[in-house]
Amino acid sequence: MALILRESDVQDLIEMDEVIAAVEDAMRELGEGDAHNEPRRRAFAPGGILNVMFAAYPGGKCTGLKGYTVSNGHVRFMVAMFKLDGSLDALVEADFMGAYRTGAATAVAARALGTAVPAKIGLIGTGWQAATQALALSRVVEIDQLRVYSRNAEKRAMFAEEQSEQLGVQIVAADTAETAVRGADIVVTVTTSPAPVLEAEWVEPHAFVAAVGSNFRNRTEVPPELVERAHTVVVDQLAAAQLESGDLIQAAEAGKFDWRQAVELGAVVAGRWERPERPGIMLFESHGLALWDLAAASVVVAAARRRGGYEEIEFLT
């Protein structure tokens, strides 16, 4: 029987620590050549876009795909997870789960690359994804202070108040993006902006920067000058980044980045990358992998089966 898990079910079941562990395991498998991930593909139709991405995660005993549509400002996400014997294991509504797996990937990268402890964090963005970025980082980094900025003063003040209470750390609503970024050991950009939201000179020479918000080649969150300054550029997957990392594509076109510099996160997690003695700025370009969705789904579905009581159907047996 295949499980049907809706958004409310996922919110009831999901645990960030478990998702971080699963994403880390999946990336290790990808780095070792055991897991497989295919980059996102898009089909454009009048009024909307269909996005499809898929992967195989042996450690989670599953294969599967994520499909989602974007139309009239509405996004609908679904993960279909199959057992290794080919039978359907679960259909999962995946908006909330997607935010968790994206935050988890940033946490995995921050831990694998190493960051200052305790860390000051600069966060640009106050949406759904920003909250899970903060949550995930709080599980792997001792946070000294988190400064958050977005263009809407009311939203950033509300975000700071709510997240301070939930995470038990000091969160300050910054008046400007520069105030949020300067002096930060970790910088996270998680916005829908089509243009850079910070300047290279604001970033500390030792900082870990996670650019999370953009996965279109014509959109950027960080300027080419920051890519050029970065000593280490880590991508979630090279094939995916070359298709949709606007930050790196535009930096390469400007002559400020060579794709041969890019290191895949899987190689870092699998121990196939040697950390430089003086690492400088470490830039993580996160665009989202179906493998992360499977990692998150694998722990959510396992939790649902342990607990029981969720909707099941006989389908594709």
Summarize the helices and strands and which ones pair or pack:
Blueprint: E1 2-5, H1 7-13, H2 16-32, E2 36-45, E3 48-57, E4 62-71, E5 74-83, E6 88-93, H3 95-113, E7 119-124, H4 128-140, E8 143-149, H5 153-167, E9 171-173, H6 177-181, E10 186-189, E11 208-211, H7 224-229, E12 232-235, H8 238-244, H9 246-253, E13 262-264, H10 265-269, E14 282-285, H11 290-307, E15 312-313
- Rg: 19 Å
Q: Can you count the beta strands? A: 15
Question: How large a portion of the residues is in β-strands, by DSSP E?
Answer: 25-35%
Going across the biggest sheet, name each strand in turn.
Answer: 9-8-7-10-11-14-12-13
User: What is the name of the CATH class of the largest domain?
Assistant: Alpha Beta
CATH architecture level-2 label of the largest domain: 3-Layer(aba) Sandwich
Question: Average pLDDT across residues?
Answer: 96
N-to-C order of helices and strands:
EHHEEEEEHEHEHEHEEHEHHEHEHE
- CATH-defined topology of the largest domain: Rossmann fold
Largest sheet: 8 strands, parallel
Structural class: alpha/beta
- Spatial separation of the terminal alpha carbons: 8 Å
Number of helices: 11
Outline of the structure:
The protein is built from 11 helices and 15 strands. It is α/β, with parallel strands linked by helices. The strands form 2 sheets. It has an 8-stranded parallel β-sheet. The chain has a 7-stranded mixed β-sheet with strand order 2-3-4-5-6-1-15.
